[in-house]
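Course exercise 7: structure representation. Students receive a sequence record and must write out the corresponding structure in token form. The form below is the worked example handed out in class, using Protein EXORDIUM-like 5 (344 residues). Read each field label carefully; the graders check that inputs and outputs are placed in the correct fields and that the protein name is recorded exactly as given.

STUDENT ID: A-19
EXERCISE PROTEIN: Protein EXORDIUM-like 5
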Amino acid sequence: MICNLSFLFLLPTLLLAASPFPHGGKGKADMQVARMSSKPGEDSGGLLSSSKRYEGSSDLVHLRYHMGPVLSSPINLYLIWYGPWPAALQAPLRDFLLSLSDPAPPPPSAAQWWSTVSIYSDQTGANVSRRVAVAAEAHLPGLPRGASLSRLAVQLVIADALAAGSLPVDHGRGAYLVLTAPGVTVQDFCRAACGFHYFTFPSLVGHTLPYAWVGHSGVQCPDLCAYPFAVPTYMAGVGAMRPPNGDVGVDGMVSVLAHELAELATNPLINAWYAGEDPTAPTEIADLCEGVYGSGGGGGYTGQVSKDELGRSFNLNGRNGRRFLVQWVWSPVVKACRGPNALD
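STUDENT ANSWER:
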């Protein structure tokens, strides 16, 4: 897919953005789900206007397949830790990614959550791969592109890692994740996005590669990007949940990272699974479920989730005894938001 950069500068948002907060009246998550095609060209016919399993409240949206590829080969994740990242904050994020293909943790598990993503297929019938690996990592603590990044500069960070040989060019299997440390600012971070995904431009990176960015919001905007571990002041009477790994910013990142990775896998070149006719402003499989973490979720209520002995909230189990709180994604089978902790 060829992008004209002068055209892209005219877009209201360059990339596809996510927030864990259940928006009240703006953004692509604020749309009502009407129907979804579970196969190319097939209309599900399932009207869900009264369902409480999803977030959304305006236009009718048809989530359908647009004939592009999904990440059907075993997925190699390439992590770029941008900025000074303490090892203790990296560990939960890495463990979450490694948990997506780990069958060992008990249910409800991160691998079971990813199994919903893997239902989606391309026109050949190939499903999103259930094999997800962290193939390599690059560490850039010195902020070579500065402590304030534009959206296009995020691609330059990837270009730098490739040029330095820190990461390989992996066509077909590679997905590149730029994770910015506490204190690093990114264009539209905390204003219009907590994370985004897209594909790199050959004019900047030399290759077309799917990638995502997610930032640590703990010191910048936890009430927006680490919800429900932090809550906006105007939500009177709503208490924040305790993060399962002890860091509001990191635990908030886990859910945003899950959101972006699910959409990256099902819509890597912005021509596969999404709703709407405009690929510059699509509604994707995680957008439909923003703010939903358990049964009954929707309308600002997270849904029913579990708590451990210390009162920390979670809905998924992962490797190394980790627990995570991750938003649900849209299931083409039940035609509603779904997670492995569902009660029905």
